[in-house]
Amino acid sequence: MRFTLRQLEVFVAVAQHESVSRAARSLALSQSAASSALAELEKQFNCQLLDRHGKRLRLNALGFQLLPKAVALLDRAEEVEELLHGQQGIGVLDVGATLTIGNYLATLLISDFMQRYPGSRIRLAVRNTRAIVESVRHHRLDLGLIEGQCEEEDVVTQPWVEDELVVFCSPRHPLAGAGEVELNRLLREAWIMREEGSGTRLTLEQAARHRRGRFNVLLELEHTEGIKRAVESGLGIGCVSRLALRDAFRRGSLVPIATPELDLSRQFTFIWHRHKYLATGMREFLKLCRQMTEGVTRSDQIDLPPVP
Fold first, then answer.
1. What is the distance between the alpha carbons of residues 183 and 135, in angstroms, rounded to a whole number?
2. Nearest CA-CA partner of 69 in 83, 89, 49
3. Which of 5, 67, 139, 276 has the smallest number of CB atoms closer than 10 Å to its CB?
4. 133 and 183 in contact (C-beta within 8 Å)?
């Protein structure tokens, strides 16, 4: 075999970071060592895997073909190393989750997983749907748990559990207790809304696409808890997952608004790259996710510890 795992590791890191210096830092190598490993790989096979675009290195056609195969080979090598160390071959798992899943489900899943597999390591990135899909597509994440849609050719999607968004307001807001509210009235209200690229924002806008009016967005926030606090203070109305509102509705600090004209149902989804090797750790984590939602039809029915 004319290549080494170290050379492939450097190639993958450079492809992900689009920079030799950043790749070297991620691998705890000197920049010269990383450059040498990549140059040696290309020299051995008389090929070029990356092209320079300004200060960035981008994969060329051959590099794009090699990347998923190199990632899969490194995943398998990591499993072998774990087994030789007497462990269960779980290794490191890079998981990305969108905000609702990341804040309310992912940390509990990771805690359970690490108790089952004490030698395992999980890195969690919490981002919006667009960012998670991009990271999976570029092999920066092994697995994504998303709330929005994904139509990328290179990404596999598998349904997980149904979710439902709810329009809500402060109990002191004029719409509190108003019964069913028409969409035209909702469009006139001030909204505290998620940013562009979030699955929550996309679901709400698609639900209202049959009307010409636009939402009156007073404030855009990237965090669900921030939206809840802003709505509690009376700044406007919001729309997030019923899962995120369960405890606030129970306490009465926020109240739902009935919106029969809006279909706010959606799906939590697993995503991974089409050429991803499903290592033991990834398969076991997916199994744990499915066990968490066994017997429930919607995310807010999942048995979670209440927030005081």
1. 35
2. 49
3. 5
4. no
Q: Which amino acid is at 218?
A: L
Enter the tokens of residue 120: 């395992």
Q: What are the two backbone dihedrals, phi and then psi, of residue 9, each rounded to the nearest 5 degrees?
A: -60, -45
SS (H, E, C) the chain: CCCCHHHHHHHHHHHHHCCHHHHHHHCCCCHHHHHHHHHHHHHHCCCCCEEEECCEEEECHHHHHHHHHHHHHHHHHHHHHHHHCCCCCCCEEEEEECHHHHHHHHHHHHHHHHHHCCCCEEEEEECCHHHHHHHHHCCCCCEEEECCCCCCCCEEEEEEEEEEEEEEECCCCCCCCCCECCHHHHHHCEEEEECCCCHHHHHHHHHCCCCCCCCEEEEEECCHHHHHHHHHCCCCEEEEEHHHHHHHHHHCCCEEEECCCCCCEEEEEEEEECCCCCCHHHHHHHHHHHHHCCCCCCHHHCCCCCCC
Q: Is the pTM value of this prediction over 0.85? A: no
- Judge residue 154's burial from the number of C-beta atoms within 10 Å of its C-beta, 0-12 exposed, 13-18 middle, 19 or more buried: middle
User: 79 near 280, Cβ under 8 Å?
Assistant: yes
Instruction: Report the alpha-carbon distance of residue 183 to residue 205 in Å, rounded.
Output: 12
Query: Left, alpha or beta for 145 (phi > 0: left; psi -120 to 50: alpha)?
Result: beta
Which pair of structure tokens corresponds to residue 186?
A: 């909702």
Nearest by Cα to 96 from 199, 19, 8? 199
Cβ neighbour number for residue 212 with a 10 Å cutoff: 7
Q: What is the pLDDT of residue 280?
A: 85
What the block records as the tokens of 290 is 């499915």
Instruction: Give the pair of three-digit tokens for residue 192.
Output: 């505290």
237 and 189 Cβ atoms separated by less than 8 Å: yes
161-196 pLDDT per residue, tens: 999 999 999 999 999 988 999 999 999 999 999 998
> Sign of the C-alpha dihedral, residues 99, 101, 104, 105?
negative
Contact criterion met (CB below 8 Å) for 203 and 266: yes
